[in-house]
Design goal:
Length: about 170
């Protein structure tokens, strides 16, 4: 799909240890020279900003986040969320907090507000450490830091596949 509009969105809190995974990957991806229509941004914990960005009706959205799925720390996942299920599960509570980021709520809110989200992927990383409001923790753990370069490659591959099957983006 040459000419596709793609949003690459890193999310997470830099004060909560491995929750900063998406932020770190997005920082690296935002320094790349992407084809027209491809945008890589660090949204951090700004759920409302991401929600409004999703209303721009991208052809594809790639979210990057720390994701607990019971794997070993540093394990990477590519997740295709069921958007119908997300919307129905989150339809009761469409309020998105301005300084909080719960991806499911943001996606549900955006879709309920009219966003067209036909192709959403999450590149997730199993965290080793997550801080909290009471226990802030700066920096990624060793296994999560080691997964950042591979996550960058996975996002590049997803963009390649979206732009055109068989097309190879040269970076």
């Amino acid at each position: 799909m040459r000419g596709a509009r793609i949003l690459i969105a890193g999310i997470g809190n830099i004060f909560y240890g491995d929750d900063a995974f998406g932020v770190e990957v997005a920082k690296r991806l935002s320094m790349r020279d992407w084809p027209a229509g491809v945008t890589a941004r660090d949204f951090g914990i700004r759920g409302m900003d991401l929600g409004y960005a999703l209303l721009e009706n991208y052809d594809a959205v790639i979210l990057i986040d720390a994701t607990r799925r019971a794997g070993a720390p540093g394990t990477l996942y590519i997740i295709e969320p069921n958007m119908d299920e997300l919307v129905s599960r989150n339809s009761q509570e469409l309020l998105v907090e301005t300084h909080s980021m719960i991806p499911e709520k943001v996606l549900g809110w955006a879709q309920a507000m009219g966003a067209r989200l036909p192709n959403v992927r999450v590149v997730g990383c199993e965290p080793a450490t997550l801080g909290s409001e009471d226990d802030m923790l700066m920096g990624l753990s060793e296994p999560v830091q080691a997964a950042v370069d591979e996550a960058v490659r996975i996002v590049e591959q997803l963009v390649d596949e979206i732009l055109e099957p068989g097309y190879k983006l040269v970076m």
